[in-house]
Amino acid sequence: MHRILRAAAAAAAGIATAPARRHRAPSWGAATARWFSVEREAMSYDVVIVGAGPAGLAAAIRLKQLCRAADTDLSVCVLEKGAEVGAHILSGNVFEPRALDELIPKWRQEDAPIRVPVSSDKFWMLTKNKAWTLPSPFDNKGNYVISLSQLVRWMSVKAEELGVEVYPGFAASEILYDENQIVAGVATNDVGIAKDGSKRETFQPGVELRGRIILLAEGCRGSLSEKIITNHKLRESGQGQHQTYALGIKEVWEIEEGKHKPGSVVHTVGWPLDMKTYGGSFLYHLDDRQLAIGLVVALNYRNPFLSPYDEFQKFKQHPAIRTLLEGGTVLQYGARTLNEGGFQSIPNPVFPGGAIIGCSAGFLNVPKIKGSHTAMKSGMLAAEATFKALVEGSSIDLYWENLKKSWIWDELYRARNYRPAFEYGFIPGMALSAVERYIFKGKSPFTLKHGKPDHEATEMVNLHSPISYPKPDGQVSFDVPSSLYRSNTNHEHDQPPHLRLRDPAVPETVNLPQYAGPESRYCPARVYEYVSDENGDPKLHINAQNCLHCKVAPFI
Q1: Can you give the three-state secondary structure of 379-438, one letter per residue?
Q2: Residue 241's CB: how many other CB atoms inside 10 A?
Q3: Which of 31, 363, 425, 529 is packed most tightly, with the most Cβ within 10 A?
Q4: What is the model's pTM?
Q5: According to the model, what pLDDT value does residue 199 have?
């Protein structure tokens, strides 16, 4: 099957392909803890890119542009786990075109799906019933409200026109090493394995994609990227501080015509979050009466009873928000973790055999709430270093060197103190942020450090009281099953669970008695719930079929 896909993609691009080689490799039957040997097809490329988001596709396009300019060629493959490019990206993004201007200068003449300029930019501080207007710090002049999923689909077409092979529907699950322990490729999942680990009639082995250089563009908390960062101690050899995260929960609505203002952008802080929890909301008016609305909650919150999903439903009941949504229809629902460590948490992105790009490395500008432009630029820088390494014989380390000379570095440096300022609480955080922006202008003589890692910040249950959330009304707020229906989540039941506990005893011996089972609340899909066993004792049950792939699971 993989050979057919590869040949078809190559034929469409008008390029020749080398015959795929085959070898035997073991495949793991996880649910039954047994090995069975299968024959996996292997394909060889000059560059393998994991992830068809803004970073991965920008890298692929830039590589092929450099090849054309030098009248040479490198084979480039992009793997995408979604069924189609953009499938795992929920619409609604305020896009800064700086990197795209560099990558495809004539994008405005090439029918790019970037058509709605920001028309207004508001910043509110919410109390329970009021919305107070504050000066907007977001600098969105010249930016656009877009569907990011449409943009990456457009970029995918541009990449394929240049000769890049793009394979949606294939999730990279394993890092491949050569005899010198240099990363030499990735392997995709075997498919057609039953829950008990046995091979079903539909079984097909995964495929190995080997490359001279591997670029990981998996997004925030990418599984392969995290393994590489840990195994090669890249955070320690980078900026040194741990990464800190947030969970973003988003819906896309179709609202009434009279309420729709294309290009209108609103960000809020304050209610419904407590004074010690960092976060905020956004409302972006796209075209076609669509509105992207969401709430971002930092995952270093103290109160174990806090539920980000329910905070989002509560937020939509605010008078200024509910009025906008009433009479509308929810089209989509989704959730995703975000990197919020910024400058202090950037790892060394280069490892033996490749590099990490985009949000896998953590280039989100937190006060801007933007990362697409920095992700794209990082992909371009990595592509330029990759080209020089493969064609001119230099080192991929050039990526790290050039990154520190780029506008990404300058931008994240200027933004470095906003997020850690809120370690002191909401009011001190707002005050310190104002001083940082309006007085020091990002050039303060000090750099604040992040507090505890997120999982250590949660306090024990005896220090907090349960939070009573209002019941969903079915009009602007909804229960989890209704939201899951809108997420188009679909997992086959007879397959090994992709979510596993490192220590199955921890939920019942630590999480439940000490923290009241926070995993049953922080997951925006209710994947984790406590149910009584035959003896009436609570046991953690994992509803893997609900998973939105938000990547919050590693925080258990």
Answers
A1: HHHHHHHHHHHHHHCCCCCHHHHHHCCCHHHHHHHHCCCHHHHHHHCHHHHHHHHHHHHH
A2: 19
A3: 363
A4: 0.91
A5: 79
